[in-house]
Structure formats: C-alpha cells, structure tokens
Amino acid sequence: MHTPVTIIGAGLGGLTLARVLHVHGIAVTVYEAEPSPAARTQGGMLDIHDHNGQLALEAAGLMEEFHAIVLEGRQALRVLAPDGSVVLDKADDGTGGRPEVQRGELRQILLDSLPAGTVRWGHRAAGTRPVGEGRHEVTFADGSTVVTGLLVGADGAWSRVRPLLTTAAPEYAGTSFVETYLFDADTRHPAAAKAVGGGMLIAPAPGREIFAHRESGDTLHTYVALARPQEWFAAIDFTDSAAATARIAREFDGWAPELTALITDGDTGPVLRPHYTLPTGHRWDRVAGVTLLGDAAHLAVPNGEGANLAMLDGAELGRALADHPDDIEAALTEYEQAMFPRSSEAATFEGAEIHGIGPDDTTDHTMQALHALVDRVTGKGQ
C-alpha cells in the first residue's frame, strides 16, 4: 500500500488488525491512550469462539500461542435458581468451541507478535478532522497531530473517530454490572466456590442476575447484573465499599447464601460498569479513508460476542486491505458490507442476560431467555 494505515486504539480488535496487516507486509501504526501495556488490568476471562474469535486468530497466525494460554475446564457451566437449586450442571468435556483465556494474556500475545514501535503509547486521541482527498488528521491530548491516508477507529464506546462517519452516540442500555472478586476462593470462600464450580455460573431472575467465572487459580470474578436506571446507581456511593456492597446485596434478599456471598464477601470493592449501546443495526455511508471496528462501530450490551466480533472485524478488514492493495475504498466497502449485518445479528441475540428483561417481567420470560443462553453457550444455538 502506498498510504500508511493508522489505528486508534490498542484493544483486541485494533491489535488483531495490526497483526494481520503485518502478516501481509502492510505498514501500520497504532496509537493508544494508555501510557504502557501494564498501565491497567485488562479485565477478566474471555471465551474465544470457534466461529469468529478463533477465525481471527487463525488469520493472525497465532493459534499455537492462543492454545498455550487456554484455561482448561473453564467451559463448564452451572445454572442455579435463586434458592441455590441446580437448573443445569454441564461439565467441560474438552469438546466445546468456546475455550476461555485471560483477556490480558491474549492482548499480550497480540502485542508480542508486532514489531517494536508499532504501538505508540500515551497518545490519547482528542479529535479528528478531514483534510481532503480521503486523508484525516488526528489531534492528540498533548497537542501533537498525525495525518493519515487510512484511519481506523478501534477506540471503543467513546470513539473519537466515529464522528467522522456518523452522529450516533452511545446511550445507556438500562442495565449495569457491579463487579467483585473473591481470591483464594476454595479455601477462603468454599461455599461460593462450590456454587460456581469449575467454569461459569449463571443465577438469573427478573431484572437481576449473578454471573461468576472461575479465573486463573481459584479466583472468582463476579458480575452482578441489575436492570436499573442510571439515577438509581447514582444514589449509591461506590467510594464507600461497605455501604455500596450492602445496597447491592439488598437486591438479592432471600437468595441462597452461597450466591449472595459472591457479593457480600468480595475481596475488592464493588465497581460499577454501566452498559451503553449504539442503535442496533447502526451503519453509515461510505466516507473515503476512514472506518471503524469493534465497539466503535457496533457497541452493544455484553452478550459474550463483543471481543470476538472486534477481533473478527480486525482480521476481515486486514484481509480486505491485503486483497485490494491499490484500492482502499474497495477494501473498506467490502469490509463494511460484511461487518454491518454480522454485528447486527449478534446484537439482536436475546440470551438469559437481563438485557431487555425488566424488573416486572415474568419468570417464564426469564427462563425462556435462560434456555436460549444455555443453547448458545453449549453450541446448540449456532
């Protein structure tokens, strides 16, 4: 390619794109707001699906490295009712198509696969503007700028690149997670550890839900999901961990103690994670020299697909550019025409997550959604 490729954002999608471009001999620079790879923890576990995330890793030539970080046994699934009774207990027999890895380790594999200097750390994008002939200028928070012939926004929910293409902005989805961790769970929190089992736990009810994953070792990572307005959460002082924990736990009064212990016995303070979304089916008209991937393009409520879709976006965009080295616009058109329906289909999936399940919905509605999620997790819904 005669025009440099500039990626904003060194998340999984942006790095996958950079790696696939590197495999095809295409020069690329990634600008990332964080000051270093170790500036913050990278979240919990990800199940990397055989129909999207793993395809991206194959395109990146990183399947051997991926298999080396898979956490064995973590595809096990337990579904418990609020009273602690077992609805489903599915062991990991090693045949599932959604192996689990730590997000930070996966990101490091991608970083290690790129030439030194590909990622420019400490460059927070502050704004973007067109400068003519399909070229765009990015201004960073420190006042520096870069002009590029191909700009890719891989910068997440609050993308600074998105306004070049669309006026759409994220809106609160009506649900939020509250995260907690339990460490050394098998010895210090045995009842909660037994409830979670070896992989993932789901405990659903109308308008509220508890998810938990067994991560590396015997760490339990809990996501407490609540369908509540932003004002409800704003009334909780999350700087007061004890008070915030007690308030969240009250929403689960009467639940089995081994489930509520995932909230009340947390070894870290509760962290609020509101969910935002772009309109389902969000798309834009083709604008020369710029496109988006991942959450910047199709932000949706968490349903297990976000990271996988971002990686596949990156791989597909990289391959399109490699296939059309002398026609960037043909490559971007090909990529977007496939990406739009793919992301829309994933966003409309209604699983047992409380997304779209309000506090007044019936238990039958919740259980129907639960069965849909179980089918998807176990591969029956593909």
From TrEMBL:
Major place of residence: cytoplasm
Binding site for NADPH: 40
Entry EC no(s): 1.14.13.-
InterPro entries cross-referenced by the UniProt entry: FAD-bd (IPR002938), FAD/NAD-bd_sf (IPR036188), TetX_monooxygenase (IPR043683)
Reaction equations catalysed: a tetracycline + NADPH + O2 + H(+) = an 11a-hydroxytetracycline + NADP(+) + H2O
Oligomeric form and interacting partners: Monomer.
Stated name of the protein: Flavin-dependent monooxygenase
Organism of derivation: Streptomyces avidinii
